[in-house]
Design a protein that fits this description.
- The complex is a heterodimer of chains A (363) and B (228).
- With 363 residues, chain A is an alpha/beta fold.
- Chain A has helices at residues 7-10, 17-20, 71-93, 112-128, 138-150, 186-196, 210-215, 236-248, 252-281, 296-308, 325-337, and strands spanning 3-5, 31-36, 41-48, 54-61, 102-108, 133-137, 156-160, 165-171, 174-180, 204-205, 208-209, 227-229, 232-234, 285-289, 312-315.
- In chain A, the strands form four sheets. In chain A, strands 1-4-3-2-5-6 form a six-stranded mixed sheet, with helices on both faces. A five-stranded mixed sheet of chain A has the order 9-8-7-14-15, sandwiched between helices. In chain A, strands 10-11 form a two-stranded antiparallel ribbon.
- In chain A, helix 8 packs antiparallel against helix 9.
- Chain A is globular.
- The two termini of chain A are 37 Å apart.
- Chain B has a six-stranded antiparallel sheet with strand order 1-2-3-4-6-5, covered by helices on one side.
- In chain B, a hairpin with a 2-residue loop joins strand 3 and strand 4.
- The chains are: A alpha/beta (363), B alpha+beta (228).
């Protein structure tokens, strides 16, 4: 199944891009097709220098019948769905591949087998149609698409997803990581717990994570480990304690209290390290992005924290918060306008490509 | 962060001038029976569930008071503890006039190196008493006008520190240098370990550094991790 989002679902960016990216030239009409395949989503988006900037975001997500993401199965899913998703994206944008000026691809970080599918297709498209190939870092893309749509100039960012939990801000040409998880990611914590205790799959029901749903049945949380180390968080002890508590629980009321305790410790620590980062960097904006940004509970907590420090809160439009090709196309466009291109023969995937290893020329 | 708050009466009955609003606490300058002191108040956080918030603020208040007391008693300069009230989440402690170590590295590296060594000595003293600071950044080390070091902000301390907890102290010290003075990390860390060795010996210092390296590789997506 291919899910297609257009501007009617994610809205319009707050400002003309020249306001956030004054060093780039926005006069020429340029189209970039972006490919995302770092984990369970194969996504294709098309970005342009002209309105509506993000023409389309099409994606297909691999959903394991049981267990977590199996990298090989995710890759097989991507191989099967890639041609369909690419065609859908072009069709909704009303473009042919010949109208595209450059092909962008997320080369990392992510799961090797999944990444290789996107990289292979992007190299193939670029070579066959003689288009420049543009490398994109997946984490930069999550931050930048959120920044573009909210119009935040210099935010402290909380990026939370199945594979990432980090607090980052821009300093000296790069997004620096001020705090991060020292073990598993927030999304991974919620998903693994839900799976281990039999709440999932499916992980998301009616737009809410099953842990959020289960927690809403309780008022009084079980107090579980709440681990902040400086500006870092740790979730592995929380996961173990929550699963153990669940196995000892007697009734549904107990179970709901455990979900609430888990959710509160997980979100509470993430918001607390963001607050620490805010006090440290003295930024005036707080930006939430990544797949877990879809949680209304997390949004509300971060909004309250920002208010305490008179900072402006922003969240990525939800269709563009989780993994998608549009964010890759957008950063692909920024990179392309900054002359960052790569020869297809050198475009190797980088599973551990850290956010703070990427120099960002357009800020 | 700007305080944006006026002089107010704290729950423990003293009046205070808010001097600093941090992420976790508000520091008030108060008159404590004729002595200028700091009252550290941990306000509730609206983004945390009430039960967890109460539990956390109580625990951190108590841990900080105990850690301050332990530090003083083993020869680690830290603010003298005057008063603690876990109900109102307030600690009253000695007022230390000083500048952050973070702010003097730039201007005087030679001196900063000496402070790093002293910090290594103090950290080793804490660690030999099973105390880990938990947030040992260059912003939590003050230098007074007579060049004495004071360690502050023990809110994330652990009183039964594991080897990992101890290593996190050095890890966070390095992290804070990375974000402000990446060019001086090597000389500062070397000095720190030199000081640490004078108390606990070279092998303990090496062990600490080894665990720090492990912790650093636990962050997501490190190139080095692949080579293991």
């Amino acid at each position: 199944m291919v899910n297609v989002d257009t501007p009617s679902s994610y809205g319009n960016p707050r400002f003309h891009p020249s306001k956030l990216y004054p060093s780039l030239s926005w006069d020429r009409e340029v189209y970039v097709l972006g490919i995302e395949s770092t984990a369970h989503t194969f996504g294709v988006g098309i970005a342009s220098t002209k309105r509506p900037y993000i023409l389309v975001s099409a994606r297909s997500t691999y959903k394991p019948e049981k267990g977590g993401i199996h990298p090989r199965e995710a890759a097989e899913h991507h191989v099967k769905m890639a041609p369909i998703v690419i065609r859908e994206a072009l069709k909704h944008a009303g473009l042919s591949i010949r109208d595209i000026d450059a092909v962008a691809v997320a080369l990392g970080p992510g799961l090797g087998p999944a990444l290789r599918v996107g990289a292979t297709i992007a190299r193939g498209l670029a070579s066959y149609f003689s288009k420049p190939l543009v490398p994109v870092n997946h984490a930069v893309a999550h931050i930048e698409i959120a920044r573009f749509y909210t119009g935040q100039r210099d935010p402290l960012v909380l990026y939370v997803s199945g594979g990432n939990t980090m607090v980052a801000a821009f300093a000296k040409k790069r997004y620096r990581v001020f705090g991060e998880t020292i073990d598993i990611a927030l999304g991974n914590l919620l998903d693994t717990f839900a799976r281990e205790v039999g709440l999932a799959p499916p992980y998301i029901v009616e737009g809410l994570h099953v842990v959020d749903r289960c927690a809403s049945e309780a008022d009084d949380p079980v107090v579980l480990p709440y681990t902040v180390k400086g500006m870092d968080v740790s979730y592995s002890g929380l996961l173990t304690a929550a699963i153990r508590a669940w196995r000892r629980s007697k009734d549904n009321r107990d179970k709901a209290r455990i979900c609430l305790g888990l959710r509160e410790s997980a979100y509470g620590t993430a918001v607390e390290v963001t607050e620490r980062g805010l006090a440290h960097t003295r930024k005036r904006e707080v930006l939430l992005t990544g797949g877990v940004a879809a949680s209304p509970v997390l949004q509300e907590k971060l909004r309250e924290m920002a208010k305490l420090h008179a900072a402006i809160f922003g969240v990525s439009p939800l269709p563009l918060a989780g993994d998608n090709g549009a964010m890759i196309a957008w950063v692909g466009l920024l990179n392309y306008l900054s002359n960052i291109i790569i020869e297809p023969i050198k475009a190797m995937v980088k599973q551990r490509w850290r956010l703070d290893n990427v120099e960002v020329p357009w800020r | 962060m700007e305080t944006g708050q006026r002089r107010s009466t704290l729950e423990i009955g003293v009046e205070g001038e808010p001097a600093y609003v941090g992420a976790e606490a508000i520091l008030y300058v108060v008159d404590w029976f004729g002595v200028r002191a700091i009252a550290k108040y941990r306000p509730p956080k609206p983004y945390r569930h009430k039960v967890i918030d109460e539990d956390l603020r109580t625990r951190r208040t108590i841990v900080e008071a105990k850690a301050l007391h332990t530090a003083r008693s083993i020869g680690v300069p830290a603010p003298e503890l005057y008063f603690v009230d876990p109900i109102s989440k307030i600690i009253v402690m000695e007022y230390i006039e000083g500048v952050k170590l973070a702010d003097i590295i730039e201007s005087n590296l030679l001196e900063a190196r000496k402070y790093a060594k002293t910090l290594g000595v103090y950290t080793a003293r804490m660690h030999s008493s099973e105390l880990a600071h938990g947030d040992l950044t260059t912003s939590n080390v003050l230098v007074t006008s007579n060049k004495q070091l004071f360690i502050i902000d023990f809110g994330l301390s652990s009183l039964k520190a594991s080897e990992r907890d101890k290593a996190v102290d050095l890890h966070l010290f390095i992290r804070s240098l990375e974000s402000t003075h990446p060019e001086h990390i090597e000389v500062m860390v070397e000095a720190f370990l030199e000081g640490y060795s004078t108390i606990l010996g070279r092998s303990e210092a090496d062990k600490l550094m080894r665990i720090v390296r492990e912790i650093r590789l636990m962050g997501r997506y490190h190139e080095e991790r692949r080579r293991k």
